[in-house]
Amino acid sequence: MKKIIPIFTALMLGLSMILLGQQQSPNIKLEISPSPLEVDVEGQAKIKVKAFDENGKEITGGVLNFLNLRDEGAVPTSGIQVDPDGTVTGRVPGPYRIVVMWAHLDKNLFKTEFLKANVKFAEVSSVEIKDFPENVYSGSVIPLNLELKDAKGFPMPESNLGISTSNKEVAEVDQLLNLYAKSPGRSSLSIKTSDGKEELLKMTVNVLKNPVTTIDISVEKSIIRTGDVLPFKAIGKDRKGKIVKDVPLSYAVSGEEKEKGAGASAMIEQDGRFVAEKPGTYTVIISCGDKSAVRTIKVVERNVSREIKVMGQGKVQNKHTSDFWVWEGVDGKDYAVTGTWGADGKAYFWHVTDPSNITLIDSFQVDARTVNDVKVSADGKICVISREGASSRKNGIVILDVTNPYDVKQHSTFTETLTGGVHNVFIYEDHVYALSNSQRYDIINIEDPKNPKRIGKFEIDNPARSIHDVWVEDGIAYSSNWNDGVIMVDVGNGIAGGSPSNPVEIARGRVEGDANHAAFPFRSESAEKFYVIAGDEIFPTYFFTKPNADMDVFAPKGYLHFMDFSDLRNPKEVARYEVPEAGSHNFWVQDDLLYIGYYNGGVRVVDVSGDLMGDLYKQGREVAHFVPTDPEGYVPNHAMTWGAQPHKGYVFFSDFNSGLWAVKVEPQVKEGFKN
Amino acid sequence: MKKTLLFFLFSLITIWGNTQTYYVYVAAESEDEVALISFDGKDAHLEQRIPVGYIPKEIEGPHGIAVDMDGKHWYLSMAHGNPYGYLYKYSTSTNELVGKTTLGLFPATMQQSKITGMIYIVNFNLHGDMVPSTVSVVDPKEMIELKRIETGVMPHGSRISPNGRWHYSLAMMSGELFEIDALRMDLNRTLNLDLKAGFITEEELAKIKEEESKHEGHEGHENMYHSTVKPTWVIPHPSLRKAYVAGNGCDEIFEIDLEKWDISRRFETGKGPYNVEVSPNGKYMVSTYKSEGYTGIWNLETGKELVRIPNTRKVCHGITITPDSKYAFVSVEGIGGEPGTVDIISLERLEKVDFVEIGKQAGGIAFWKMEDK
Q1: Alpha carbon B368 to chain centroid distance?
Q2: Which domain holds residue A66?
Q3: Rounded to a whole number, what is the distance in Å from the CA of A369 to chain B's nearest CA?
Q4: Which residues of B are less than 8 Å from A22 in CB distance?
Q5: What ipTM is given for this predicted complex?
Q6: What is this structure's pTM?
Q7: Do residues A507 and A595 share a domain?
Q8: Which of A169, A554, A591, B260 is most buried when burial is the number of CB atoms within 10 A of its CB?
Q9: Contact (CB<8Å) A108/B164
């Protein structure tokens, strides 16, 4: 009995800990004033807080603590200052939240409340019209780009302003802030505060007679294919036939579909480049004020489709397959290595000289759960595999001797500063570029592969940086950095004096959507353009909100962004390839053909010849695609293609659920320009 | 013979006499899964595998897990994001995601304070630069990170005193124990364990700091040295003003007198003690010896190790003990493609009574509830 009592007591104690462990001080009420709180910039207000118990009796002796948050989230902001005594000082206009924390240290009581606060803008004090043209010609339409500032100099959002012109026969402004230059003459433009009491800006608009009487259009072709970019050149001339240089020309297009109900889709940039997604007859209208000229062109099917033939499969059906690499071995035969994902840390080696007979010839296992990336040196002697999920939590890379792919041996492992897991690697001229903890890439000299040495690193100055991949070509490293986009770094090219031990950034381009996952540079074989293709990896944010979610419902999204890096200082995103029902992953370009592992969309081959503009998928540039399904795959009949690599006339690709594949894109039977 | 028979009878009573079913959540770090397991006193069952995370082709690494005080929600720290990790909030009734917020780098262990209701999570920053990291304070109702309180290099272990007032965490690399005032949300005290344990002298520490401050690019590294103690876990005693710290690097557990703020006892353990828990009745101390794959059970009063039990697989990790102090649930990571495991150890019989396999790299583990059968 004596033993039972303590056991019972302990049991009850344990149970009471569960039952009594309820939310803190639930019955305390805080009375906060003022609420909501408003304060001017550099103005002050004082927060007053009283605490009351469940009987409405005030609790005295509590202490207060205040935290200032941006309205949308957690990070403290300097836009509003809250002193320990509750004095609030406005710094930057905008909405904020203040956390009011009350605690009674002796009674172990605690309560928090959120107080909405707003630092007010002062009255609007100045308006500027940006980029207003020097000469305004009759018949032209000029968007008014307004820049507002308040009395403290803070930029303001657009607000209700009174905008009017004195002579509506000459110029008029619509509700969307477009100024219509209607006829030659003078008119004043006035911008007033919404109550009309104060005039913020007054200027004279001098509408000139349009000197252009004719517009000459020159264009090289009258029949093109979908996806072909056709530049229109136009010149405005006066009545004497002289060229007028400073007149603005505007480009527009209208179209008639070839197939009824299909709609006609084409676009023309304001530099005169035209492209169409669908066949049809299109009329380009080039205007200058009240003068215009038209030119009609015909767009026909691109007709680049080719058959794709499955050659073989190196089956991996008991685990997921990750990245792969195909190379010509030192014996002149062809080999491939594939990684594995979320499994047992194995990499597989294949003989692929005959793609119809892909043969597993060796494997190599390391302490990891994922060998996400595998790369082989250009001389075919060294393979580097990445490690994630090592039991020691020291991941790093493993350097292998693949001189004889039938008997792969380990040169060394390297974990220094790479413990956090290496997601991707690249080998370039005796150096390994290895991602470290998704924050930077380290550069490791492997001239002596048994004694690798870290000699450099590259990371950007952004606390929230996150890097996903790196690819090196011609001495330039192209890294993919999610929100920060594609970053080009000289690691030996010489353009900026960089080297592996002294990497120097030379350019960067942010990518629409902020989901940059992979990058591949290519210099067009058929146009004087240098592109970097930046690929997304996007999954719905609600992917795993529910257990047992249906994989098909939450399919990946994302596409490839074509960044024109011809001018390194001014990269532009000019085109995309987007398969509506699938999500992009890894890719490769060779001879103006793009090969993509498009996850659930399988392997895709795309014609990227010529100038690129618009949506390449809709332009019919897809040459071929193949969706691999394997009824005995790790996830049966569920394509999830990882990446693709052309090699000696074949396209190899790895699939997450079924291993390594080889296909051949058959020669084109149909020629373009068929109508 | 008589003793054997009595033991047999006692065992039968223990097994059949158990009227509770226990439920535990366990995170599988290399599977991006959380497992809900049950144990009825005899058999353990995998009730549900819950996929977590939002990028199915990246391992995001669920690491720390905690159930709130009313048992209605469980919280999961995800180690890897772009670049910051997350805190996810799930409903225990549906195991569906109901909220999330961004934290620091590699958020890990967490616990909710009884008096503030806030969740305190260490930002482990396991693989980042050797600079001090933080403890995040999250309002679980709003799912907003309110504050980051700077502590030491690679903070780990995050447990709160039974009264909810004091939060304890460690810095693995700088060998420090931190006490945060949960009410004030500020650092209250710091204890250098290497100094207190005699592994380093004040002079040596000062010299290291001086050397670090001279190195270009080592700004903020002044308190960084490779701690001999390498503390990985701290757990306050359920009723006494004491805490127990796992010295992963020195194969010891330290008892800290929280009144004197000093080491009061030292326990020599197996290799690599990683987690340490004290049973709610204050009788047992349970520790995983990560490097050798054993779990040790100690009598706290006598300071003797009662038994050292081999885990089902290598790399044992976390511990949770049932409120009735009968069972310890131990997560075991495994290696490579091995499944993760949860070993169930009877604290009365001092033996492993069952195990259940879950996803790879079982780590964070949290007790949810016990129900009458």
Answers
A1: 15
A2: 27-120
A3: 5
A4: 69-70
A5: 0.87
A6: 0.88
A7: yes
A8: A554
A9: yes
Distance from CA of A73 to the nearest CA of B (A): 6
Place of tokens 């103690």: B229
Residue A575 reports pLDDT greater than 60:
yes
A175's CB contacts (< 8 A; 6+ apart) are none
- Same domain? A269 vs A329: no
* CA distances for A475 relative to A645, B13, B213, B336, angstroms: 21, 74, 36, 36
B282 vs B239: CA distance, rounded Å = 7
> Which of B50, B70, B115 shows the shortest C-beta gap to A547?
B50
Q: Which of A91, A120, A149 is the last residue of a domain?
A: A120
User: What phi and psi values does residue B4 have, to the nearest 5 degrees?
Assistant: -60, -45
pLDDT in tens, A209-267: 999 999 999 999 999 999 999 999 999 999 999 999 888 899 999 988 777 777 779 99
Report chain B residues whose CB lies below 8 A from the CB of A548: 51
A:366-425 residues touching chain B, CB 8 A cutoff: 367-370, 388-389, 391, 393, 419-421, 423
CB contact under 8 A, B59 and A10: no
Could you report the per-residue pLDDT of B55-78, keeping only the tens digit for each?
A: 777 889 999 999 999 999 999 999
- Decide if A670 is inside a domain: no
Residues A426 and A554 both lie in one domain: yes
Residues B146, A99: C-beta atoms closer than 8 Å: yes
* Distance separating alpha carbons of residues B11 and A32, to the nearest angstrom: 60
Question: A149 and A54 share a domain?
Answer: no
- Domain stops at, among A251, A282, A300: A300
What is d(CA B78, CA B75) in angstroms, rounded to the nearest whole number?
10
CA angle B368, B371, B373 (to 5 degrees): 145
State whether A114 and A129 are in the same domain.
no
Question: Same domain, yes or no, for A291 and A332?
Answer: no
Q: Are B266 and B254 in contact (CB under 8 A)?
A: yes
Q: Is residue A675 part of a domain?
A: no
Q: pLDDT tens digits for chain B (373 residues)? A: 555 555 555 554 555 456 899 999 999 999 999 999 999 999 999 999 999 988 777 889 999 999 999 999 999 999 988 888 999 999 999 999 999 999 999 999 999 998 899 999 999 998 777 889 999 999 999 898 988 999 999 999 999 999 999 999 999 999 999 999 998 899 999 999 999 999 999 998 888 877 776 665 555 555 567 899 999 999 999 999 999 999 999 999 999 999 999 999 999 999 999 999 999 999 999 999 999 999 999 999 999 999 999 999 999 999 999 999 999 999 999 999 999 999 999 999 999 999 999 999 999 999 999 998 7
Residue to substitute from B18, B101, B183, interface A, most A β-carbons within 10 A: B183
| Residue A393 CB burial class (10 angstroms; 0-12, 13-18, ≥19) | middle
**A239 class by beta-carbon count within 10 Å (0-12 exposed, 13-18 middle, 19+ buried):** exposed
Give the count of domains, chain A. 4
Q: Which of B83, B115, B139 sits opposite A438 (nearest CB)?
A: B83
Choose among B95, B116, B184: nearest Cβ to A547.
Answer: B95
Residues A574 and A646 in one domain: yes
Do the domain assignments include residue A6?
Answer: no
